[in-house]
Amino acid sequence: MNVRTLLADAARRLAEAGVESPRVDAELLMAHVVGRPRAGLLTLDDVAAEDAARFAGLLEQRADRVPLQHLTGRAPFRQLELAVGPGVFVPRPETELLVEWALEQLAGLDGPIVVDLGSGSGAIALSIAHEHPGARVTAVERDPGALAWTRHNALTRAGARDTPVGVVAGDMTDAGLLPELDGRVDVVVSNPPYVPDGARVPREVADHDPPLALWGGPDGLDVVRGMLDVAARLLRPGGRLGIEHADQQGTALPAVVRSHGAFSEVADHPDLAGRPRFTTARRG
Ligand code: GLN
Questions:
Q1: Atom of ligand 1 lying closest to residue 244 CA
Q2: Any idea what the Cα angle at residue 228 is, between residues 227 and 234, rounded to 5°?
Q3: Where does substrate bind (predicted)?
Q4: What is the ipTM of this complex?
């Protein structure tokens, strides 16, 4: 069957269903089915009937708002491709600059210690380990469903360099978390659940991302408030904390961190789209 026709029909089908980037999604699904990179579709004229049938099946699921990354099983994030699927939060491009910031804090440090609280797919932890070889990174995840993906990605490395990442089952608000790292951590980084209860989220997020990765109480900041004591205890003096937040929390989250008392140099940073996205601070 002709690829160009299939793609044109597919893009139309996804557009009708209200999918945001119909053409790109159609191409990525086709690339997945035929096992080529997206650019490789340019030199492909026909696909076998069974591939066309598989494509049609995936297309209907996408039209029904199953996340593209669940259908391909992969989520690109910085230099890596994480394995993802039902049960784990799909890493977002918004989070990439938080990793960039963490790497800047680690520059020049030999074997720095890093903790990623609420690691999910491990996107942040594995990217830091990959881009700062020698970093000693621990990924913490409390949701057993998500933890299976953290472990899977840590084991298979998701294309990362051979820097091991430790995976720990634990809750970022647990006062006794990681006692062996007390006062030793150079950077604590987190993309915690921060969506205010009752806020509207797109159907593909509400139906497919795990609730524990999303909901953060009435103002979305309950988990962050619960995490600050743990972060303050783990960080060495001068160590840095970086926390992602919703674009409406660019004032509220810095205020929460300031009022905790253990941190100085509290600052807020935009994401690649220029929206307020993460708060950073210095321990002490
Ligand atoms: N940014 C996420 C979203 O798209 C929310 C993630 C979170 O709460 N950490 O819904």
A1: 9
A2: 95
A3: 191-194
A4: 0.91
